Amino acid sequence: MKLINYRKKKCFSIIMVLLLTISAVRAYQVVSITIYKGQSGSDSINIVHKNGDMKTFGFNDTTSERPLWAEVYQDVFGPDKRIDYLSKLMPPGTGDKEHFVPLRVDRAPAGQYYMHLDPDGTLEKGCYGAGKLVDYGD
């Protein structure tokens, strides 16, 4: 009888430790994107955002010929919805490939999101840069 109670207590303790460990680890997703001087735009893959904060990071190299937009879009039926409060215009020389600059952080509704890099102007080219969209979840 004592052996069964001991095993139950030990099993319960192990389960509790696992549950606490899982709840303490904060899961997040990251998508990265790069744009080269010959491109007029570049899209990342989608992330599925459930709730909580999303943060954007980016850089626009000093060799870029114009400012670079780091834009976040929500993938919806019809034209995708630009999330203005998560998008930012970066002048040339913003950060570098080893030190991305934090651009924006804010809460966003549930949905699928992606990052789009776009040189400033209609169908313009001439930017070398990159961006990251991080979903911190809740």
Structure overview:
The structure is a single chain. This protein is of the alpha+beta class. The chain contains one helix and ten strands; from the N terminus they run αββββββββββ. It has one helix at 2-24, and strands spanning 29-35, 42-43, 47-49, 53-60, 68-74, 81-82, 88-90, 101-107, 111-119, 129-137. Strands 2, 3, 5, 6, 7 and 9 form a six-stranded antiparallel β-sheet that branches. A four-stranded antiparallel β-sheet has the order 1-10-4-8, with no helix packed on it. Strand 5 (68-74) and strand 6 form a beta hairpin. The protein is elongated and about 70 Å long. Residues 18-25 have low confidence and may be disordered.
Give me a quick take on this structure.
This protein is α+β, with helices and mostly antiparallel strands. 17% of the residues lie in helices and 41% in strands.
pLDDT average, as an integer? Answer: 83
Largest sheet: 6 strands, antiparallel
The radius of gyration is 21 Å
What sort of overall outline do the alpha carbons produce when their principal axes are compared? elongated
Q: Which range does the strand content fall in?
A: 35-45%
- Count of beta strands: 10
What share of the residues lie within helices?
10-25%
Give the termini distance in whole angstroms: 43 Å
Q: Ranges with pLDDT <50 over ≥5 residues?
A: 18-25
What is the number of helical segments per DSSP (H or I, 4+ residues)? 1
Which H/E pattern describes the elements?
HEEEEEEEEEE
Structural class: alpha+beta
